[in-house]
Amino acid sequence: MSQVITQGNVPHGPASGPASSALPARAAGAGGPATPPGALPRVLPCARAALRRFAAGAAVVSAAALATLSAAPPAASAQETDRLTVTVRDAGEGLDGTYEVTCRPGRGSHPDPEGACAAVERNTRWGQDTFAPPQRDAICTMQYGGPATAHVTGTWAGRPVDATYDRRNGCAIDRWDALVPLLPAVGSATPS
Known about the structure:
The chain has 192 residues and is α+β, with helices and mostly antiparallel strands. The protein has helices at residues 45-71, 113-122, 170-178; strands at residues 5-7, 10-12, 82-89, 97-103, 149-156, 159-165. The longest helix is centred in the N-terminal third of the chain and has 27 residues, at 45-71. The chain starts with a strand and ends in a 14-residue tail after the last helix.
């Protein structure tokens, strides 16, 4: 019984020879071995090991980059400053006015700058507008939370903010209450 050992695409052994090759071969160019049509060239064991090390290294770098991105808060980077101006009207005595707040660290003319920043952070989700209005097709309870209105402008997470708030129905009340104490606790709001 004759054994044929192949290396690359060229058979070796007792049965090797021009007549023993069942596959048509292309002419070898630049000193390389002949390769049948549609076949991939043979990868040497040392090159295979190098490719494995490269792929493993690339996977580690990719995982590290992903971990860094997912660990970073979706808010702004250290170089960006989150600044908001809040103007409140018709919320009641001592609550109306215009307040400034700057986060990281929390400071400004707002009565509770740290709490205001924490409220916005708590409502910040990656890929979502923290200050977006309720969806137009949202089903909201028909309750009235009072005449209070607020206008928030500035920059948050590197994006411009220009949002208005009121308390005309259940969705608007929930939206307002989610930002207490950035917005003052009015009616059903419970500070967190």
